[in-house]
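Re: the 203-residue chain
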Amino acid sequence: MTVPSAPTTPPARTEPTGRRERKKAATRQKIADTALRLFLEQGYDAVGIRDVAAEADVAVTTVFSHFASKEALVFEQDENFEHRLARAVTDRAPHEPLIPALHREMRAMVRHCAAESAAPLWDMIDKSPDLRQYEESMKLRHAESLATAIAADLEPPRTTTACRAVARFVVDAHALAREAADPDAAVDEIFRMIEAAWETTGR
């Protein structure tokens, strides 16, 4: 699952409340937006961190204070996405089953990420070995985070293997559905299989 910068993932984060936090968030967003524009205009490999910093009118150290790597600039919504998946588990309505809650969240994400305006960004990611490698490591991290949320939330509990397996299936659903001719139908099909597999773990 990839979570690039805006505009491919709808905002679902808590807005910073303090003046300092708002300023910090605005700077971070400015850097991410600038980087994405430069990457799409000039090519990912042709743009360096110094180029992004100069265009955003910030110091290179400021860029690195917000983003650990050049790849992270593309996946600006990484942390937001990871938290959204966990909250789909922990914040769902009382007695709402797990899989439908994750299905609903994934459908919203895929629908936005499959928008025509996002196509140039996904094309850039697909053509870059560095970005694809970063994406794979991110997917594994998101799956582990989701598995932890699932394991902590369930009563009666399921095995660690079951929680990790379903989490990976859910995370992988994003890329599979986004690339399909009918993303909504693909999400529904994938989650029917996920639900069927999940039900067997509770027997």
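The longest helix spans residues 129-153.
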